[in-house]
From TrEMBL:
<dbReference type="InterPro" id="IPR018060">
    <property type="entry name" value="HTH_AraC"/>
</dbReference>
<keyword id="KW-0804">Transcription</keyword>
<keyword id="KW-0812">Transmembrane</keyword>
<dbReference type="InterPro" id="IPR018062">
    <property type="entry name" value="HTH_AraC-typ_CS"/>
</dbReference>
<feature type="transmembrane region" description="Helical">
    <location>
        <begin position="36"/>
        <end position="55"/>
    </location>
</feature>
<keyword id="KW-0238">DNA-binding</keyword>
<keyword id="KW-1133">Transmembrane helix</keyword>
<protein>
    <submittedName>
        <fullName>Helix-turn-helix domain-containing protein</fullName>
    </submittedName>
</protein>
<dbReference type="Pfam" id="PF12833">
    <property type="entry name" value="HTH_18"/>
</dbReference>
<keyword id="KW-0472">Membrane</keyword>
<keyword id="KW-0805">Transcription regulation</keyword>
<feature type="transmembrane region" description="Helical">
    <location>
        <begin position="318"/>
        <end position="339"/>
    </location>
</feature>
<dbReference type="InterPro" id="IPR020449">
    <property type="entry name" value="Tscrpt_reg_AraC-type_HTH"/>
</dbReference>
<dbReference type="InterPro" id="IPR009057">
    <property type="entry name" value="Homeodomain-like_sf"/>
</dbReference>
<feature type="domain" description="HTH araC/xylS-type">
    <location>
        <begin position="685"/>
        <end position="784"/>
    </location>
</feature>
Length: 787
């Protein structure tokens, strides 16, 4: 009993399409939002991981940059301290120089020109190994003379070319030349050298080294240009564009580049700045600080944050671009997938709410609502199936009664009803019979009726146990109608008659011996189509009446009865079936109806000439009525056909009339067949065109095609197979594979992309279908050379 289920499915599909249009937009549904939120969460989780990785990369890059800065600053510090140590070593060498000691110890007033020249020659070579010693001089107090690598000057003459802008001549002589110095360094000062202004630091050492008086015999002074000092740290300023500051232990500036004294003082005084930290961010700079263990000098370098994190910023920019693009694409894909996955659920929800009402429970979500209603629907469907199975005997009984009574209008209607009643008609040919239980003349009380019900039940049970292929139904209170269907298409009619006769004889003997029930039966002539069952049953009823009237025993065939008829046989139901059959284009069925009418009138009746003329006139009238119907008036040739019907002579033999009617029916059924063929051709063309347009849709099904052409799904499935010789599913696969081969040859799409473009959700399914149809995989096909 599958028919009710199919009906339910069809109703559901129809309601789905209708209600989906009436519901809220899918994008506003909670199911869509839940799907979308799930996809967004899936996107956010790896994005968080990527962000953590980005922070780690920034931290590592920053640490490496800081470490490199500290290393460069310490290297510059090391070189500077080594150079300053060389300057100190230079003064110690001067202290032990013999010529210089002689000059320092001379007390006469005469100038020892030769000694001075010798001293100048000896000290001239010291400045060639250290660029810090390019500008130095020695002041001899006893001669009041300044010795330089190139010449000798009086203090006032030397001051004219080389002097501090903040010291006068007297101040310079008192603070520098005439004081005792023990490895003293004058901090950064403005200095004029031969007319060019610069900034220098000054290293001063009194000679000899053990001088403790307020004045010493000689003073060695080394003037070091600030540019030479900061040049040792040029990698910090040139590479990063930052600043460098060197100060002594008292905080006085030794060298400064890239910034100014006020900025340095502000930074040192700022409580936010910690001078003890090796590296820290101050305002927009990374400040690196180191301190010398030997002289207490503080080395500081400032690197702009944006330049320091240049590589990190590149990573940041790329990370933001990639992450942003990925999130945008992922969000778009999430929107598409959320819509695609929520659409069927929303349509199903719409149908459920339309069919079963809205869910009253506010705490239940959509999935609980679906689960509950689907479970309830399955339960009701099972109950319905159980009820249908329980009522199946009633459905079968009703079908048999309608079939015997001739209530069906066409053969297709009979076959459809038989399928619904789960009755096998086999080839649609056989014999109709009527069995009566004898001995119940008066049926006016309940006891007799109950006994008859039991007797009919026992009779049908006994007939079934005899193994006969028979369909049975009660006919009145004391009769059982039977239909014996032939299982073999070319069964021998005589043998079938003998078999039925034997079965009925055995039945009479069994029910009499076991239940003391006596039966009488009558059978009609053979029917070759299910539309002739009622005629055969009428004959069986007449045969049974004849047997009872003649007091015959056993079973009686209609052919055994003596019929004396003076009227022709042409019942109204036969006329109606003939008209319906021709309009349906069923030529063979129409011929069988006409043949049955002719057999009844030619073989079983002796018609007078008048009755024969009336019969022919009646049949001609039937065809005239048929040709006046709308189904035929649209054809131009109908007038010729109508003329042929009118021209049939009443005096012609019935055999000749039958042949002429056959020819007319062939022409009419041919017109109907051509019309059906044209209609079917158009439908098949629509199906092919729609398939060619929508093949890339993975959800393209026969149901959607049926909606498009506005025909039942089962109808177009059979029609397409009959017209093209292939199933629709095979045709759809062929269309998709043809398009796939074109893309494989003429495009650079991957196999997975091609699978999606030709309507496959799974690339694995696409590969399997392609190889099954073409014998090779898509990859091999793409690599195969083409002519």
């Amino acid at each position: 009993m599958t028919k009710p289920k199919n009906d339910i499915i069809c109703d559901y599909d129809s309601a789905t399409n209708n209600s989906a249009m009436e519901g809220l937009p899918i994008r506003n549904s909670s199911v869509f939002r839940k799907f979308l939120i799930s996809y967004v969460i899936i996107l956010v989780i790896p994005s968080i991981g990527g962000y953590m990785s980005y922070l780690t990369s920034i931290s590592v890059t920053q640490s490496i940059s800081i470490e490199n800065g500290v290393t460069q600053l310490e290297k510059g510090q090391e070189i500077l301290e080594r150079r300053m140590a060389e300057v100190e070593g230079f003064t110690r060498q001067l202290a032990v120089n013999q010529e210089l000691n002689v000059l320092m110890n001379e007390r006469d007033n005469e100038t020892n020109v030769y000694g001075i020249w010798r001293a100048m020659e000896n000290v001239l070579t010291f400045g060639q190994t250290n660029d810090f010693l390019q500008n130095y001089y020695i002041y001899l107090a006893n001669y009041n003379l300044i010795l330089t690598p190139g010449s000798s000057y009086r203090p006032n003459h030397y001051y004219a070319d080389f002097h501090y802008t903040d010291l006068s001549l007297e101040e310079w002589m008192n603070q520098v030349l005439k004081q005792t110095h023990r490895s003293e360094i004058k901090p950064l000062s403005s200095y004029v050298s031969r007319g060019q202004q610069t900034s220098v630091i000054t290293y001063m050492q009194s000679l000899p080294l053990d001088s403790f008086n307020d004045s010493s015999p000689a003073v060695a002074v080394v003037v070091i240009d600030e540019k030479m000092i900061v040049g040792l740290l040029s990698s910090m300023t040139d590479r990063y564009g930052g600043w460098v500051h060197i100060s002594d232990a008292e905080g006085r500036t030794i060298a400064l580049k890239g910034s100014g004294e006020p900025e340095m003082a502000k930074m040192i005084d700022d409580p936010k700045f910690d001078p003890n930290k090796v590296s820290q961010f101050y305002e927009d700079d990374l400040v690196i600080t180191t301190q010398s263990d030997s002289n207490g000098w503080v080395y500081q370098a400032g690197i702009p944050r944006d330049l320091l994190l240049e590589n990190a910023n590149k990573i940041k920019k790329m990370s933001m671009l990639i992450t942003g693009g990925t999130l945008l694409i992922g969000l778009l894909v999430g929107l598409v997938l959320a819509y695609r996955h929520s659409a069927p659920i929303n349509r199903l929800l719409s149908v459920m709410k339309e069919q079963f009402g809205r869910d009253d429970g506010t705490s239940r979500n959509e999935f609980d609502f679906l689960s509950g209603n689907i479970s309830d629907m399955i339960t009701k469907n099972k109950l319905l199936e159980t009820e249908l199975n329980r009522q199946l005997p009633l459905v079968r009984d009703a079908f048999l009664k309608r079939l015997i009574s001739g209530e069906f209008k066409s053969r297709d209607e009979i076959w459809s009803a038989a399928e619904q009643a789960d009755i096998h008609l086999h080839q649609g040919a056989g014999y109709a019979g009527l069995v009566q239980i004898k001995g119940y003349g008066s049926m006016d009380n309940v006891d007799i009726l109950n006994e008859l019900n039991a007797s009919r039940l026992l009779l049908k049970q006994a007939l079934s146990e005899l193994g006969a292929n028979v369909q049975m139904t009660d006919w009145g209170s004391d009769k059982v109608a039977t239909l014996f269907f032939s299982t073999d298409e070319e069964a021998d009619t005589q043998r079938t008659v003998e078999d039925i006769t034997q079965i009925m004889d055995d039945l009479a003997q069994v029910v009499f011996n076991d239940y003391r029930i006596t039966i009488q039966s009558g059978f009609g002539n053979h029917f070759s189509s299910v539309t002739e069952v009622s005629d055969s049953f009428d004959q069986a009823n007449q045969a049974l009446e004849y047997a009872i009237h003649m007091n015959e025993r056993g079973m009686v065939w209609s052919s055994e009865t003596q019929t004396e008829n003076t009227t022709y046989y042409y019942p109204l139901d036969s006329e109606q079936r003939l008209i319906t059959t021709i309009r349906a284009g069923e030529l063979e069925e129409a011929k069988r109806i006409v043949e049955a009418i002719m057999v009844q009138n030619m073989e079983q009746r002796e018609l007078s000439m008048e009755m024969k003329h009336q019969l022919i006139g009646e049949m001609k009238g039937t065809f005239i009525k048929l040709l006046d119907q709308k189904a035929f008036t649209e054809y131009d040739s109908i007038e010729n056909v109508k003329r042929r019907v009118i021209d049939i002579g009443s005096a012609e033999p019935l055999e000749t009339v039958k042949s002429e009617l056959y020819e007319i029916m062939e022409e009419l059924c041919g017109l109907i067949a051509n019309k059906k063929k044209d209609t079917h051709s158009q439908i098949v063309k629509q199906i092919k065109a729609y398939t060619a347009e929508m093949y890339s849709d993975a959800e393209l099904t026969l149901y959607r095609v049926a909606e498009h052409v506005e025909r039942p799904e089962k109808y177009i499935s059979q029609l397409f197979k009959e017209y093209t010789g292939v199933n629709f599913s095979d045709h759809l696969i062929k269309v998709r594979m043809d398009q796939a081969m074109i893309l494989l040859r003429d495009s650079n799409y991957t196999v997975d992309e091609i699978a999606a473009r030709v309507g496959y959700n799974s690339s694995h399914s696409f590969r399997r279908a392609f190889k099954r149809l073409n014998g090779i995989s898509p990859s091999v096909y793409r690599q195969t050379p083409y002519e």
